[in-house]
Amino acid sequence: MRSDSAVRPDCSGFDFTDHVRRLCEDVAQRVPDMHHIEVGRVAFAFAQTRKRVSHGLYASLTPMRFEDGAEQGFRRGRKYAVQKLLNEHGEEYFYILTLYLPRFQNMSFDEKLVTIFHELWHINPEFNGDLRRHPGRCYQHTHSQAEYDAQMAKLSQYWLSRKPPESLHAFLRDDFQTLQRRFGRVYGRRIPHPKLLPLP
């Protein structure tokens, strides 16, 4: 795998993060519960998993703000700000969605879709850089992650029922080796985890 921070028209191979971005753009347009997502302010990245095993992290969503969209917050009694990341228009990214390869790509088609919807659903309905917060201690997934994922499965099937172009999701039907064999290489954008900057 190779990391490229920018896409060049003459690049050969498969731009994984750009394909994920375009899929998410369509989801945000077709699924009413996702209309609040401004995809241009979500950074898409991949990270390479060191071990080719089926267990482990498949995807993550990193919020770029603190609770309720605050630019500053406290960790262990100390005040911090999050290192900012800007898009090509100079706008601040509010979220980073990272997929872990090849592990993510080696799941089934339905599992990949549910995983993408799972991460998109974490985006706060106010699109303020904070996570969606549910009541109780398990504020990220409610009391049952199984029920959470069942809801994501329904949303992903709803999206498919709206007949998005097959070209948007065809790559999810291949495992990682097949994708490499078809396109020669798989590349995309890598983004280091943003730093917490201590404030006086």
Structural account:
Helix 2 crosses helix 3 (about 145-160). Helices cover about 30% and strands about 20% of the residues. It is built from five helices and nine strands, in the order E-E-H-E-E-E-E-E-H-H-H-H-E-E. The protein is globular and about 50 Å long. The chain has one domain (about 1-200). The strands form three sheets. It has a three-stranded parallel sheet with strand order 1-8-2. A three-stranded mixed sheet has the order 3-7-4, covered by helices on one side. The longest helix has 17 residues, at about 145-160. With about 200 residues, the protein is of the alpha/beta class. Residues about 1-10 have low confidence and may be disordered.
**Terminal residue distance:** 41 Å
Quaternary status: single chain
Give the amount of beta strand, in percent. Answer: 15-25%
Number of helices: 5
Enumerate the spans where pLDDT stays under 50 for 5 or more consecutive residues: 1-10
- Rg over CA atoms: 17 Å
Could you give the order of strands across the largest sheet? 1-8-2
**Beta-strand segment tally:** 9
Q: What class would the helix/strand composition place it in? A: alpha/beta
Quick one: biggest sheet? Answer: 3 strands, parallel
Order of helices and strands: EEHEEEEEHHHHEE
The mean pLDDT is: 89
Q: Helical content, roughly?
A: 25-40%
**Total domain modules:** 1
